[in-house]
Amino acid sequence: MQKNKRQRVRSKESVVASLAEILTLIRLGRANTRLAIEGSSEYGRAIVADRLATLTELGLVHENDAGESTRGRAPRLVQFCADRALIFVATLGSNSIGAGLVDLCGNLVTEHHETADLSERPDDIVDRILRLVDWTMSRQPEGREIWGISIALPGPVIGLSSSPFEGQNQIVEPTLVNADALKTLFQAHRVPIWLRSSVETMTMGEYTRGVEGDVKNMLFVKLGRQIGAGLVSNGQLYRGAIGAVGLIGHLPVASEPVGTLDGLAGTEMVLREGQKAAEAGSSPRLREIFDRTGVITVNDVCQSAQMGDIPSIDIISKSGHRIGETIATLTNMLNPELVVLSGDLAQSNDILLAAVRERLYRAAHPLATRDLHITRSQMGGSASLIGAGQIAVEALFELQTLRQWVDLGSPVLHPIFADNPDSTPAATLAGRDEQER
Description:
Layout: H1 2-27, H2 34-41, H3 45-57, E1 61-66, E2 76-80, E3 86-92, E4 96-102, E5 108-115, H4 122-138, E6 146-153, H5 181-189, E7 193-197, H6 198-210, E8 218-222, E9 228-233, E10 236-237, E11 252-253, E12 259-260, H7 261-265, H8 267-280, H9 284-293, H10 298-306, H11 310-334, E13 338-342, H12 344-347, H13 350-363, H14 366-369, E14 373-376, H15 383-396, H16 399-402
């Protein structure tokens, strides 16, 4: 009896493993016909037919379209059902919240941005996120499911497991540190939750949707009041030991006055120096703006520099040179193929990009810069939402995680997420064995 039980367990494990492997081939576009699946997976025709029947019944694949015929009848294309469910994504900025939904291929289905004050009580911010979940889902066709919630926070988040079925995050970012955000979100929707830093999600968004060509190593730098970086190494987001990667704004800058990159090259420096130029009258254009509005913004300095205002050009160039020197050090160490600059300073000003390039190529080793490309972000404000979705999709469909729920047809049917685990439906797969090969 014990031997038969072990055989049944092994049989179910092999069925689940083959379901996960075949679904992965289809989802990633590595095989889109039954014949191609047989060739790529090395499973026999009977097993492939059975597993496709199961995946179709679970709503994960379909065979509705015909492919090109080479000889005889055209084969039916096997396609992943990316619209099977949705993932809610949100990004918290200093004065705004972005929200949206992505499908199971990471495509942004809907996007919404609104102003917000992150100095509000953390509980109020969590409540606002919950209302956005309900609002965005209410605008979708009836019956659409949500399979996860992925949120980008302004600062570092450490201790995040790569699997939604393991331990939960430790939140270091102060916005939600006193609100039991994970527990509240989980209790409201009972789905996997991911929390990441916005720099990480922007890095992923830019890499998966903004980069052209076969780039495997990319350095992403976000320029703002705080300057942070994200790294893609060999095609994977690099998180380091605990997730505290990319805090480059705290690096010292070799200049007078002595300070950090945040203080001497970020938007606070641009505002401070722009204000001085306006008050002293050394920049007539900034002085005119200040007299008219009573305030100088980063955009004012950037636009003035673009229009040839010498003091503004000096401010932006100084920022770019200091940033370029820091990136040169990182380039010597990491040897990326591509450096992507993001944020208001980078997006609105050619002068800053030129200054970064000038100092980077001067300070970095020629071998490190031989094939290096430097560019602006192509995704803009959507990068963080897309990246948050991509992080969730990759975690849900990571092979080991996929094996834990694929036979159920949905990750939210996993006992961890069920309101009553005892009543969770499960596919009856144990009766199938390896003799189908």
